[in-house]
């Protein structure tokens, strides 16, 4: 378990025991990524409202949660998705991320390092490009790369098989790399070339780079 995961696990358990400071720690750790996911579903205008509804439910149901940091992120993302879909139904709108869910191949694409695209972008611009992906690919990419879930946890949020989520994420990342290049970003690094040290840099908490290492473990 990574250091930040261990700290989040401890904070979640303390929050379950009624520690308000620990709950604030949990919120600060999870909220930025969770808000990014919600934005891909409902758009910027409604994201904060849906996030508030999400955290109200998290606070209400926290005592019933069981698991570590990874499970908590998946649990929170599932609540966020349900609240977002409720919001969309109430407004009579389609999800912000466009396209119908397409049938997925059983074998992932060859370009399993297309997430190099994310290193060239800030979070806001990345999410704007992700919003141009088909819905299944956009959700898979955000859950894997932004929220930081593994394929099994992301599959639980989406109600799919892990293999289908991996395939959607691969396709989405490959398409995202194409969008980045078409959007005027310099040519991405050779997919076969690793970044220095093999891990993401410790950039700002508002960047995407620091989230990349977590998802590489089982893409």
Molecular structure report:
This protein is 64% helix and 0% strand. The protein has helices spanning 3-16, 20-42, 44-61, 69-91, 116-119, 123-130, 135-147, 151-158, 162-182, 209-216. Helix 1 crosses helix 2 and helix 7 packs across helix 8 (151-158). It is globular, with a radius of gyration of 17 Å. Residues 98-117 and 185-218 have low confidence and may be disordered.
What's the main sheet like? Answer: none
Shape: globular
The count of helical stretches stands at 10
- Helix/strand/pairing class, anyone? mainly alpha
Topology order in helix (H) and strand (E) letters: HHHHHHHHHH
Taking pLDDT < 50 over at least 5 consecutive residues as the criterion, the unreliable ranges are 98-117, 185-218
Give the percentage of residues in beta strands.
under 5%
| Distance, first to last CA | 18 Å
Taking all Cα atoms into account, the compactness measure Rg is 17 Å
Oligomer description: single chain
Work out the helicity level.
55-70%
Average pLDDT confidence is 74
Number of strands: 0
């Amino acid at each position: 378990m990574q250091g930040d995961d261990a700290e989040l696990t401890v904070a979640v358990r303390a929050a379950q025991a009624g520690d308000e400071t620990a709950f604030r720690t949990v919120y600060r750790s999870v909220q930025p990524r969770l808000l990014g996911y919600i934005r891909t579903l409902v758009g910027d205008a409604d994201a904060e409202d849906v996030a508030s509804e999400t955290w109200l439910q998290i606070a209400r149901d926290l005592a019933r949660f069981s698991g570590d940091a990874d499970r908590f992120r998946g649990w929170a993302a599932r609540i966020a998705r349900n609240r977002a879909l409720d919001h969309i139904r109430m407004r009579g709108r389609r999800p912000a991320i466009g396209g119908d869910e397409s049938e997925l191949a059983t074998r992932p694409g060859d370009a399993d390092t297309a997430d190099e695209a994310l290193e060239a972008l800030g979070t806001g611009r990345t999410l704007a490009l992700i919003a141009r992906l088909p819905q299944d690919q956009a959700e898979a990419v955000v859950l894997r790369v932004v929220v930081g879930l593994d394929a099994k946890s992301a599959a639980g949020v989406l109600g799919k098989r892990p293999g289908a989520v991996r395939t959607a994420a691969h396709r989405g990342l490959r398409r995202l790399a194409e969008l980045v290049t078409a959007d005027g970003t310099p040519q991405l690094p050779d997919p076969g070339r690793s970044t220095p040290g093999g891990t993401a840099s410790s950039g700002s908490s508002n960047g995407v780079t620091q989230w990349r290492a977590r998802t590489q473990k089982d893409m």
